[in-house]
Structures are given as C-alpha cells and as structure tokens.
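Memo to structure team: turn this sequence into structure tokens by end of day. - J.P.
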Amino acid sequence: MADNVARRRIAVVLTPAPRGSRAGNRTTALRVAGLLRQLGWTTRVRTAWRDEPCDLVVAVHAVKSATAAVAAKAARPDARFVVMLAGTDVYPRYEPTPDSAAALAAADAIVALQPLAASALPAALRAKARAIVQSATTVGAHAASSGAVARPFVACVLAHLRLVKDPLLPVHALAHVPDTPLVQVVVAGRALTDDLAAAMRAAVAAEPRARWLGELPRRQARALLAASDVLVVPSAAEGGANVVSEALAAGVPPLATAVPGNTALLGDDWPGLFPAGDAAALGALLARAAGDAAFFAGLRARAAALRPMVAPARERAAWAALLADIGLD
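Reply from structure team:
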C-alpha cells in the first residue's frame, strides 16, 4: 500500500466538558468529531491532553481548553492546530488568559461560530479566523399554529441556567402578555447554581403559564423544540448558539436578543429580535407571535429561508475547506 494511504489521519478534539455532559462545548466537540470522521479521519474526544500521536488538534473553547491546547501544541509541534471560539471567549469583550492567548497565537486556524465573533479579536488573529455556522438535523415535523389559536402557544427556552443566559427573563416576560391567547413558556435546562434554581422555582410558582422541566436528555429536548411554536434565546451574550441552528432546522422561529451572536446568524432585520434584558419587549413579541397570524407566518417563512445555512453538508464542506487550507487535504 502506498505511503500516502498507509493510515488514516488522527484528530484529537479537546473540550472542557466531560463524557456524558450535555453542555454546549461537549455537543460541539462531538459534532466536530463526527464531521471529521465523515471526512475520513480517526477522531478522539478528550478533556485533557494525553500526549498521543495525532495529525490535528481541535480545541473547543479557547479559554477553558487553553491548558490542554498549549500542552498539545508543545508535544506535537508538527500537528495542525485549530482553536474554536466560544461565546465567552470574545463576549462581552476579548480578555484572554495567558494560555488562551498563546493557544490562539499558535493556531493554524481559528473557527468562530458566527461571522461577527472574529471582529472582537486583534487584527493578527482575525487574519486566520473564519466562521463556520453549526449545523443541525431536522427533528420530525413541526405542526405550529397559524396565529391566534385555541391551544396554548408554546415558547421554549433550551439552555442551562446561568446568568449570561438570563433564563428568568422569558418567565418575567409573561407579566406583559395578555391572558388571551394563552402563551406558555417552557424552560428546559439544569441550574448551574443553587441561587438560580431557587429563583426559577419561585418564578414559575408565581406564574401559572410557565414551567421549568430541569435538564432533559438531548432527544427529549429536541422533541420539545420541534413541538414548540417559537424558541426564546434571552441571552445577554452569545457566541453563535447551536440551539438557534436546531430551531431553524426544525422550522421553529427564534425570538432572540439583539446581540451579535444572534444577529450574525439571523440578520439585523430579524423580526423576532428584542433588547437584552427587556422583559416588556419580549412579552410584546410573544403576544404578537401568538395573536397576529400574518406576523407569525412571516417569522416562519424567514426561518425556513435560513434553513440551508444550518445544513450538515454545508458545515462538513466548510471543515473540508479549512483542512485543505492548512495543508490537510
């Protein structure tokens, strides 16, 4: 057998999230590993560097994977090195640690999850950054309402409860939504602090139109999304949330904060944008989506038009092009 086909190339994908975690960094790592396997690579997902032979290292989250990434680069200087930016790597501002700055400086390529993230980087790093939008597969058929409906209009929130995600905002927004038509907010995600868990329990206890389901298995979370009328993304900052991709794939329009991580994916003129932290504005959007058939139909049409952006084939092709550009074609 010829030397150039003697063995499959090996990629190590580093993530701070352990096996079994439903955190976004783990989901991203597993998806990247899957895409690389489709491109003919042998892949290994690790939470720490194990000093193993490899041709490619992909570090998910510049700051949280920095220690492992720097160790990998030192041990395998001939391997190609890619760093993927998480939202907290660049928002609310770019403030690298010494290790993450070293990892980004050493990277052959930097991957952002949406086109605006690279603009937060210094010019020297922007030159080797590119955006690769996360893909998603369609989950079943979405049977959404067509405006004013007899059944509840369901708005789901899929995110672990932490302050940057502002998880209480959609529940508080219901105070600004009329009783008719009935709008329900369903929150699914694990509270990352006891204080947030207590606050969420108190909020849903005071609002009969809201429920908190806690953390759901991925299959159930995707089923909830597919059965909902809209997705709410209330985050104060986002790096390019995969749940937005999943909503577009499922035909579920997002109502999202007007922050760069959302507008870069949805567009500055997305009709479902609202200011971060503004419960009244979100409440007005929920009421309009539930009660205005033409507005809701327009939202769904806009979401459908963006579905090709999150096609798995498109993400796979983007990774293939990146590998070719860094000498791994």
